[in-house]
Please model this.
Amino acid sequence: MFYHDRELQYKVRVDKPNPAFARMLQQAIGGIEGEIRVCLQYMFQAWGARGPVKYRDMLLETGTEEMAHIEMLATAVALNLEGAPTSMQDEFAKDKVVGAVLGGMDPRHILSSGMAAMAVDSNGVPFNGSWVVGSGNLAADMYANVMAESTGRVLATRLWEMTDDPGMKDMLSFLIARDTMHQNQWLAVLEELGGLHGVHPIPNSFPQSEEVKDFNYAFVSTYIGNQTTEGGRWTQGNSIDGKGEFHLKKAAPLGGEPKLAPPVPEGHAQKEQMTMADTVIGTVADKVKGAISGSGGSPE
Amino acid sequence: MFYHDRELQYKVRVDKPNPAFARMLQQAIGGIEGEIRVCLQYMFQAWGARGPVKYRDMLLETGTEEMAHIEMLATAVALNLEGAPTSMQDEFAKDKVVGAVLGGMDPRHILSSGMAAMAVDSNGVPFNGSWVVGSGNLAADMYANVMAESTGRVLATRLWEMTDDPGMKDMLSFLIARDTMHQNQWLAVLEELGGLHGVHPIPNSFPQSEEVKDFNYAFVSTYIGNQTTEGGRWTQGNSIDGKGEFHLKKAAPLGGEPKLAPPVPEGHAQKEQMTMADTVIGTVADKVKGAISGSGGSPE
Amino acid sequence: MFYHDRELQYKVRVDKPNPAFARMLQQAIGGIEGEIRVCLQYMFQAWGARGPVKYRDMLLETGTEEMAHIEMLATAVALNLEGAPTSMQDEFAKDKVVGAVLGGMDPRHILSSGMAAMAVDSNGVPFNGSWVVGSGNLAADMYANVMAESTGRVLATRLWEMTDDPGMKDMLSFLIARDTMHQNQWLAVLEELGGLHGVHPIPNSFPQSEEVKDFNYAFVSTYIGNQTTEGGRWTQGNSIDGKGEFHLKKAAPLGGEPKLAPPVPEGHAQKEQMTMADTVIGTVADKVKGAISGSGGSPE
Amino acid sequence: MFYHDRELQYKVRVDKPNPAFARMLQQAIGGIEGEIRVCLQYMFQAWGARGPVKYRDMLLETGTEEMAHIEMLATAVALNLEGAPTSMQDEFAKDKVVGAVLGGMDPRHILSSGMAAMAVDSNGVPFNGSWVVGSGNLAADMYANVMAESTGRVLATRLWEMTDDPGMKDMLSFLIARDTMHQNQWLAVLEELGGLHGVHPIPNSFPQSEEVKDFNYAFVSTYIGNQTTEGGRWTQGNSIDGKGEFHLKKAAPLGGEPKLAPPVPEGHAQKEQMTMADTVIGTVADKVKGAISGSGGSPE
Amino acid sequence: MFYHDRELQYKVRVDKPNPAFARMLQQAIGGIEGEIRVCLQYMFQAWGARGPVKYRDMLLETGTEEMAHIEMLATAVALNLEGAPTSMQDEFAKDKVVGAVLGGMDPRHILSSGMAAMAVDSNGVPFNGSWVVGSGNLAADMYANVMAESTGRVLATRLWEMTDDPGMKDMLSFLIARDTMHQNQWLAVLEELGGLHGVHPIPNSFPQSEEVKDFNYAFVSTYIGNQTTEGGRWTQGNSIDGKGEFHLKKAAPLGGEPKLAPPVPEGHAQKEQMTMADTVIGTVADKVKGAISGSGGSPE
Amino acid sequence: MFYHDRELQYKVRVDKPNPAFARMLQQAIGGIEGEIRVCLQYMFQAWGARGPVKYRDMLLETGTEEMAHIEMLATAVALNLEGAPTSMQDEFAKDKVVGAVLGGMDPRHILSSGMAAMAVDSNGVPFNGSWVVGSGNLAADMYANVMAESTGRVLATRLWEMTDDPGMKDMLSFLIARDTMHQNQWLAVLEELGGLHGVHPIPNSFPQSEEVKDFNYAFVSTYIGNQTTEGGRWTQGNSIDGKGEFHLKKAAPLGGEPKLAPPVPEGHAQKEQMTMADTVIGTVADKVKGAISGSGGSPE
Model:
């Protein structure tokens, strides 16, 4: 369970309130790269953790910390909204600055929240629970977490570039530092779980003997132009998981032409779909047979 | 630009149609772990690629392949829906099997699509464009891709376990193999970009000297219980990115109590918020001062 | 900021795991009546609180408690999923029970979360940040909170009726008790703020002299049938806020027929909309004039 | 403005309540093919109508009627839920029928609405305002309306097939009849606006001389397989709008390889994207030049 | 399956990058009128096509082409973002232009994508899979496609008006031309399927004898004002489908007053709903009887 | 069923069209505080009403009135868009005003609706059906309605402050007056149902003897800082519902540490989760036992 005190994890100071920057900060609160997502993601991973308990414990630690980050950012939004315009009256005609500010603000900061943060992104699109990833596979979850902290840190550095308010820059420097740690933290779990050779392919509990051979380490090229395809680490050498050899394979259809039954009467397609289907299907069946024999046979 | 033929990349065969399994397959089409997401994700990353062109080229290759995977799965859904019940009539009272099947189906496979796949997940929740991640940072994107292929492969192996239809198992074995390759492929890019020491912290173009010191390699523990915190790779040793030393730090507030201005009149808070605010704010200000001095001062 | 320990606020015990009940519990986690909503709602209200600090403090207390409730419910979901079927194989044909269970489960509990809770409702629809209400008006927010705890307690009692698992009934009895308190708690704030006469109409800081007279305490009846309209407390007597007298008023149009300009050329309506508009508009203008004089004049 | 009486537009009778059919009916209420959508769509088209007033008037008529259809369907949902199970207790273990029914129901009909209709589809996915199409172009809107009434009538006939309840079949027979009329009604507007030759291409107010020649009546084929492409009405003859001649054109790239600038420093891509970009761009530039000259030049 | 080359279908050139226009272009990518929608719509219609195979083949052709249109627009977005401001620093106070530009941009083009296109509309609202219509009825689908290409072409002409960048105007002229063809193409299928008399009412496979008589060709007027209702093509003459005669009918209730059972105890309504219901229901029942007899009887 | 005339409920006049204000008004149409929500909410509550019929009748009255409010606001949006810019051409470079206006507008008012209202909020986020609350519990619904009218009136007063257009101020004064009435109206129902002592805790049909004792009137404090917790009405005195005594209780865990089973093989967690789980679980079990005995036992 959870506890709180009334203080912030780190200083949140705004020297020159900027309502347009308040809108930008919303991305770090309710956006897909934001703190609500990581807070709930680590929490749900913890609450559903099956396997070694120490990972559950660690996820709870950091999930709880992220709640404090939402708090800091929400405070920063409110402080950036101090003194924001609430009117389009006379001034709107006279002073284009007000217009520009209003254009750059989230109008719902005035209309809906009364100058406070909301659970939305920088375009006012609400936080969406589908972003909370907890797959039940620890390694997949760790990659989801590294990814969240990577796009999160990219976002934070862009916000840092965007402002010259010393208080905001300081707060963001703290959050950037925490993202550095959190990237490392989830990578540390991946190292404990066996590193690249140990964890991949994720899930490592599925027998690779069941995979369709020749396709699990082949780079399939769908390119049909005339230029040469520049190779890379992914077209030659040992695979990164140490379990195969990379090679390049030109895309080619092995599956033949798909053939669906005509519509059922109760589904009320057009009559023409049912009548014409009969005729055509014979033709198709023939075509399909040709197509399959023409396309070079089955994959095994 | 893009081209097509009329054949499938790999065989899609359904021996015993199962409309409830059709619903399950929708997760691999329109779910967050599904193929529409990776198709569009690799495409958008390619179309917005800035930097070495070979990564753009590679992203296009695999994005194009994923479109063929949506096609395979959509075909599999349609084939699993052959012969599905379209009625709750008399049979519903008599035969509970029909009820069970209808209960397990996506009703929109009957009502909305006429026995065909849709751009939704296994609960009928529509595909959402917010899942398409392209951050402009190549390393962050590669982690987004490894994560997508990891949760995608976990999903595919669960679908493989769920069915004993030989055709479906074969198709899934192909898709599982491709996910193996794609995990390796994005990891290969990360290796090319410098590996763990080279790419982290992402973005590696932000000067770490700007990070708040002491927090970028500290595991912050918010735990206040009496048990000991079991350490892990993330509490000691060199950081995974090779740029710091892990250490544990007990969570403590450095930010003082936040203080917002009273509401502006035009925002029409309750009168009591404005009047009482004045009085209370004095008190708060004092409290805040105490809190800050009590909490141990500023972070540096 | 926030802290945690590793224990639950209250016992969560499942005697007979039931994967269909796990799905039902999701409504109390990620549904609009659920705990993520109230947790974030109280938090955002606290973080944006302007006015008396004691309300901010209290909101933080209860927001933090709600996080512990999400934890309890997420644990209950995971426990109800122990032993859930993961397969539609042979058994599906033979044993309709498995089908019924699978039909009653959230398939994503198998496919996406590996038998754990998710940030979705009982239909798998993701939690949506738009539900997090913090208006900046303390009284409006308190009603949002009473409403959330009322629909929340209704939901919890329905879940309580649905199960006969003693562990689940006990956990729900705890949550129902907390909802009782929380309803009372927010009502207590409304009492402190002045009760019905003091807080209404919300916001009480807008001068009622600006309201269009005769309409602020009139029950407008749009009914045009032949039966009599049964009165109620809302058609007679003093208004609940003590500032007016209820009376009934038959709906009648005071606004005349609306008239829009023809489309601008750059908006590319059909040509006919532009040509015909000219002709017709004259007619409309006349009609409008008639309509306005016919409808009984302006409201003052 | 709007008025009501307390009676339904047409009889709604349920002989054998079926809670699973209640769920099916939700598709016709809150689904994309449903009545909330057409109600709001016709209303918003009316309220924003620019041009001949008679179309505004007509849209209001039918929008108002659709509100009565939502009412009928909502009543039908409530009646189908009479006697629905509210429990998974003992019976769940003993009687699989209850399980099947619960599996086929929308659980939120029990948990959230207390046995009443909701503004959601048959999977519990909420109605979405993005479906309400009003483009400002009358002809485009009429097609949106024909489309809505076509998918709506398809849905209604599928629901009709699904039930053998005489009351429900009767109600659906009424709604199907109304959809027949509404398809005809919007087509009648299209006839008034000039028919196929008059309204197309929509918008007909854009000068076709500005279109890139040779592409406005060409069927572009992206097929690269070996079979012959079966022609159709769309590959030969006068175009349907009477303004061109259909012909077939093999897809070929005219646009060269796209070339984006390297990332800006403040966007914090990886360092390698910036460094390597410089080197590679030279190469690309050359390649692009080659590609453009190789691809056959500009379209005119 | 699918293939690609590295070149664009048509030239994409931006002479004067305009980050606000980049935002506008997003509507044509991820908006409901945009290219992701048509691409997936034609694909899903093809993959689920039952009936004559030539329609499947044709849908694949155009679905594949639309993918190339997304690519063109995504490239156009990236090019319009070259040189966009990334900062609100000093300049924000001094130079209102930057503010105006930032206000007009999608902030996520800076924060989330690093100056590249995203799968969202011009307000940053994500693409939604519910827009992908494939009903299983070929004629309904063709109308969905005509509608998509009509609103799509309206959008493209508005974008064309909005810009004076010659490169952008040229690209849009190409897309407008393609929309012209695609409108004609889907109409051509409708002609093949029998034209207005043949395809309507959609679905044409439902026996019209089952429709409630007198309502399938009646224009129902809900208007109760004093003006005369101006007729139109839809109030007289043969119906457009050739199967009936239009006529006008004043709206009147045929369904009586609905009557629901009192709440079940397990649903935990308020006690007063259960008690009072008993009393009132008697009254209601009487009223209902009166209402039905008063409202003129049943519809047949 | 429903009827209409062609006139507005109240005058809608715009003296100086302002396209940015048009965007603001969208919040009152399609936002969570807006009129589509209350219209559908009262309608769905009426259509699902079980219990005294007079509440159903009343809900229909006001639901019908709200439809007229959407109409007024939609008209106001269209009128504010008269003369709005449709172009970013030359002027954009020269005249920053156009840029400011375009930045402040909803671009979809140009691109998607052709200068008319849409079913979206002020950020273009679509109306969402999940906001339509009808719980089946009359008292809970009345609170949902008071809350909707409270946030709705707060919104309307903010819009009133924002504009100095006399026509718009007049229209808003009317809507504000109606919100005053509607707040009072739903409160009047709550008074009829028994007032605070009668209706709470909602639902009042659940036996409070089933609640976990000591927690239904306890204010639980999760605060662990050093300051004193300022009491309030909610920490002492009779509870507002008259059924208990408020008291303060320090948060303490009663539930022990949760313990989940190891992952099932078919869920394909990582191998390490399964192996390590076995070892660790022994330890955990011991810890849990200690934790439970240490945390002070069960709640009763």
Q: What stands out?
A: Chain B has ten helices and three strands. The CA atoms of residues 221 and 227 of chain B lie 13 Å apart. Residues 207-251 of chain B form one domain. The beta strands of chain B are 2-4, 218-221, 247-250.
